[in-house]
């Protein structure tokens, strides 16, 4: 069992019994209240101690974030493609060429399949 330095009796937290006791019984707030060294430290060393025990990681936000820049560039490219007629025609030409090449490749695969099938049938007879 863990040693608890805090008084868990709710009656001891009432106003009449608050002598020589930390009135805040929450163990997560004011954790250094019972530490006698805290009163001897200056505020700068206290902040340094807090930063060592609770490091704060900076959050990237705003316009300095790399994700924002990527999103802005992608958005600009999509806007350009959707609004420029020449770019749209170029994309359609490229897509039609690609589909032609794909269909030609499929025809070639069908021919090879038929050739291999005929070869297998010829070998079996």
How large is the radius of gyration?
A: 37 Å
Average pLDDT figure: 76
Ends distance: 85 Å
Assembly state: single chain
Output the structural class.
Answer: mainly alpha
Strand content: under 5%
| Main beta-sheet strand count, sense and barrel state | none
Number of domain modules: 2
Chain-wise SSE layout:
Layout: H1 43-53, H2 66-83, H3 85-124
How would you sum up this structure in a few lines?
The protein has 125 residues and is an all-alpha fold. The protein has helices spanning 43-53, 66-83, 85-124. It folds into 2 domains: 10-53, no CATH class; 65-124, no CATH class.
Using brief descriptors, characterize the structure shown:
125 residues; mainly alpha; 3 helices
Give a description of the structure.
With 125 residues, this protein is mostly helical. It has two domains: 44 residues, no CATH class; 60 residues, no CATH class. Helix content is 55%, strand content 0%. The protein is built from three helices and no strands. The radius of gyration is 37 Å and the shape is elongated.
